[in-house]
Design goal:
Blueprint: H1 11-24, H2 37-44, H3 48-60, E1 64-67, E2 71-74, H4 86-94, H5 144-149, E3 151-155, H6 159-170, E4 175-180, H7 204-215, E5 220-225, H8 234-238, E6 242-245, H9 250-262, E7 267-273, E8 276-282, H10 290-293, H11 296-305, H12 309-317, H13 325-343, E9 352-357, E10 362-367, E11 383-385, H14 396-407, E12 412-425, E13 430-437, E14 456-463, E15 484-488, E16 492-497, H15 502-505, H16 515-519, E17 549-550
Parallel strand pairs: 3-4, 3-6, 4-5, 6-7, 11-16
Antiparallel strand pairs: 1-2, 7-8, 8-9, 9-10, 12-13, 12-14, 12-15, 15-16, 16-17
Length: 553
């Protein structure tokens, strides 16, 4: 009948295939001792007899040799090794290894060849049938624990953000924080792999986070529907290992750049338009930052847009940029790779830009020039963690008491955004009290309800302690949870974090059953310092001496 016998894969052959993979990619190096039969048996969950048969297969292929009373050792394998013949190729193919991607180590590399990537990490043999990240274990520089512990914030869940989220989740980045203020519309479906037609009108951040959790249930994810420029506390940035900007306007990029620089965090920026795109990585004190790259024309345009604060915000929310799903995939992939390199402390060209031209398929990298007078180049010093202070419960008066205890009676608070105290109509001579942050005042509210004239905006970003609204909570005037507030006197700055918000603000527990456990997970931050508690200002004990931050000339 022409039927052929079916060849069944034995356990020993499967074990041999995994060991071969570790040998050919350099994880098990020439001269290195292979783990004992007992160790391999325990790691792989098979019998010692199976392991012994697998090692005999490797010996027959001239990949290892057994030395009496010492154990089994990897032999020198080069491109012309005796063991690299049809039997080895056949075995690798049967075990699922893609032969074109297997790179054997040549023991006699040509002069000038780059050095091989090496690592001293413990050997781990993955179960490729059960371990979704198993194939990454064959990458010599891959650090599973580092990747799974990492916290990465993705700002923007549109076309680029979809690609970055998809890539990072597939690579097993353990904690993802998704930020976006927009809702899904039909036009997003042509370039956003995570969105569906039934998602129309829903928050981008929530839908993207839910789909990513479905894609990889092992990761922990959190989403935030809001404006990154005003509604994310700096304490969130402080706790991130990487920040990815998938943004479409200069104002948001500038805000992210400043927050990252202030807290000493690297961030990866990407931009796309039609078939063109760029990727760049910025890191404090490592060359130019994003603000350094802005041309004088760009600065003038931003200043013009801010000639009327309410109109400026209105314009930002209307910004749309034409893109294609192909360039989104390319640039999103490049951004994701930069994140992996950051997590593994691999070489990166900070302060440079890589342009990709999809029209000609050309790519080139150019270094930016660092500006000595750049306004973003300021790094926060020691941060006082206020465990009992939260944005919702702590009042301005209570925070001022702490600040003045540390800095004296002339201390003031500097806010990161303007507070709209009121709106005045020049035609009607009317005044409306607002006491809300600029981000919460719409353009339509700026119009006089009586005559339709655009009203004058009365704003402040400084709290002196003489204001009539000191009984308001920090959140009530626009300070987000887990924020780091600046305070100063005539000679120095100090920085105070609302650490009481940490557990609720950064939990990575969305779309999980055991949210209480996830929300209470420990947060690794700077070494603990003496805590400052709220109370009667007179009874507050003297604060310990800390590093002084001098005002710039």
């Amino acid at each position: 009948m022409g039927l052929m016998p079916i060849e069944r894969q034995t356990l020993s052959r499967t074990v041999a295939g995994q060991l071969i993979g570790l040998i050919v990619n350099g994880t098990l190096k020439p001269g290195q001792k292979v783990p004992s039969e007992r160790e391999l048996s325990e790691q792989l969950g098979v019998s010692r007899t199976t392991v012994r048969e697998a090692l005999e297969t490797l010996t027959a292929l001239n990949l290892v040799e057994t030395q009496a009373a010492r154990g089994t050792f990897v032999k020198e394998i080069g491109v012309n090794a005796v063991g690299y013949d049809s039997r080895l190729r056949d075995l690798l193919e049967k075990e699922g290894f893609d032969m074109p991607q297997v790179r054997l180590v040549d023991p006699h590399p040509p002069a000038g060849a780059p050095p091989e990537v090496t690592t001293d990490r413990p050997i781990r043999l993955p179960n490729l049938k059960k371990d979704r990240l198993g194939t990454f274990e064959f990458i010599s520089w891959w650090e599973r624990e580092t990747v799974q512990k990492a916290r990465v914030m993705i700002i923007g869940a549109g076309a680029l953000g979809n690609e970055v989220l998809k890539n990072l989740s597939l690579m097993g980045v353990g904690h993802l924080f998704v930020v976006d203020f927009d809702q899904i519309e039909a036009a997003n479906l042509s370039r956003s792999v995570l969105f569906r037609e039934e998602d129309n009108g829903l928050p981008k951040s929530e839908v993207a986070a839910r789909r990513i959790k479905e894609l990889n249930p092992d990761i922990k994810i959190q989403y935030f529907q809001g404006d990154v420029t005003t509604e994310i506390g700096l304490g969130v940035f402080r706790r991130m290992d990487g920040i990815v900007g998938c943004l479409d306007n200069r104002e948001a990029r500038l805000a992210v750049n400043r927050y990252a620089y202030w807290l000493g965090k690297p961030w990866v920026d990407g931009a796309i338009q039609e078939l063109l795109g760029l990727v760049r990585v910025f890191k404090p004190n490592h060359g130019a930052c994003y603000e350094c790259t802005l041309t004088e024309q760009a600065r003038r345009e931003m200043a013009l847009r801010y000639s009327c604060p309410l109109l400026a915000r209105h314009n930002i929310l209307l910004g749309k940029i034409p893109t294609t799903p192909t360039i989104s995939s390319i640039i999103g992939a490049m951004q994701s790779q930069e994140v992996l390199k950051l997590l593994h402390d691999m070489p990166i060209e900070y302060g440079s830009v890589t342009h990709f031209n999809g029209l000609t398929n050309e790519m080139h990298t150019t270094a930016y020039v660092e500006r000595e007078d750049c306004q973003s180049h300021w790094v926060y010093s020691d941060i006082v963690e206020l465990e009992d202070c939260t944005a919702n419960e702590t009042t301005l008066a209570e925070l001022m008491a702490i600040v003045r205890r540390d800095l004296g009676d002339d201390a003031v608070l500097e806010l990161d955004q303007e507070i709209v105290m009121g709106l005045e109509c020049p035609n009607c001579n009317t005044h409306t009290e607002v006491f809300r942050p600029l981000s919460r005042v719409t353009f339509d509210e700026g119009l006089c309800p009586a005559c339709g004239e655009l009203r004058h905006v009365l704003m402040t970003h400084m709290i002196t302690g003489e204001e009539p609204f000191l009984d308001r909570s920090l959140r009530n005037i626009g300070v987000p949870p887990l924020h780091i507030v600046r305070a100063r006197n005539a000679t120095q700055y100090r920085f105070y974090e609302l650490t009481g918000d940490a557990a609720e603000t950064l939990h990575f527990a969305h779309f999980t059953q055991d949210t209480a456990v996830s929300a209470g997970a420990p947060i690794t931050i700077r070494p603990t310092r003496a805590r400052v508690r709220l109370g009667d200002p007179v009874a507050v004990p003297p604060a310990p001496q800390r590093k002084q931050v001098r005002l710039r000339d």
